[in-house]
Amino acid sequence: MKQLTRNVVGGLFGLLSGIALACGGSDGDAEGGGGACVPGQQVTCPCPDGSMGVQTCEFGGGFFEPCMCGGGTGGSEETGVETGDSNSGSSGSDPCGNGVEDPGECPDGDNPGTCSQDCDSADSTGAEESSSGEIDNCADVPVFVAYIPSIASRWESGPLQGFAAGQDMCRMAAMVANVPDAALVTVCDYEQVLQAEAAGELAGLPAGSTAWIHRTTNAMVNGVASAPGSGGRCVDWTYQTNHISDGEFVTVAAGGVATYSLDNDTVYNLDDTTHTQPGLLECGTQMRAILCCNPPCDPQG
């Protein structure tokens, strides 16, 4: 029997917060010049368009991988659009915390691993065997299970408002779709959307559709770490104008390829309108879907 544990929204907070941008590395190291470095270490690096990217020290500790930039699709630090976070569209080595198990990141034999976050994510999204060699009963448990189309930034369901209303709508949608343990289904967190995309589970969404992103973990936006905040979640989905809060979202292309439009300034201050990006990450003028996910699966070998 598949056993699921209740997802506590925000439980993934800090998944990416362990990513350490190098402190005191030489200019030669930052440019991948071949100097010794710590396996998995990440430093910022300049991109051709003037933005900042990230490069990672390779597993052997001998050099930094090529600089990872925004993918050349028009995003910039000013827009707050993270164009290089699609698991299927990046080149080179993916960063720690992207939800995908890359070579050298997980313990294996004498290798202690360099990114336990991605190992945990890989375990919950379809590994066929556990570390002990036993069959992983989470292999067939999907992450993304239902969605509610065309919802304003102020979420409402009966007497409920905000995030609680989103939870209620997701569970009703899961019941209609006959999802097992529908009462445990929750609004997808950003990390779960990444996992669902990597598993190909977004391919059934209409091409060009958009969905609100509920982010509770750090994320790289144009090479700079962006902390989560209610100022990037339309004040936790109770806000329906545009002057004090932004709304992060994802756009899904044909085949389930996702482009994430994230906020590089998620601060919410009722008296300060300088933290928003009108015309780019608007709340009140938009209607987007809500994505619904299973809670993380607890493997039982």
Structure description:
The chain has 5 helices and 12 strands. With 301 residues, the chain is of the alpha+beta class. It has a domain at 144-293. A hairpin with a 2-residue loop joins strand 8 (219-221) and strand 9. It is globular. Helices cover 13% and strands 17% of the residues.
Report the average pLDDT across residues: 75
So how many helices? 5
H/E element sequence: HEEHEEEHEHEEEHEEE
Task: Report strand order across the widest sheet.
Answer: 3-12-6
Strand content: 15-25%
* Helix percent band: 10-25%
Number of strands: 12
Offer a concise description of the structure.
This protein has helices at residues 27-30, 116-123, 163-176, 190-198, 234-237; strands at residues 42-46, 52-56, 144-152, 156-157, 160-161, 186-187, 209-212, 219-221, 224-226, 249-252, 258-261, 287-293. By secondary structure, the protein is an alpha+beta fold.
Topology:
Blueprint: H1 27-30, E1 42-46, E2 52-56, H2 116-123, E3 144-152, E4 156-157, E5 160-161, H3 163-176, E6 186-187, H4 190-198, E7 209-212, E8 219-221, E9 224-226, H5 234-237, E10 249-252, E11 258-261, E12 287-293
Antiparallel strand pairs: 1-2, 3-12, 4-5, 6-12, 7-10, 8-9, 10-11
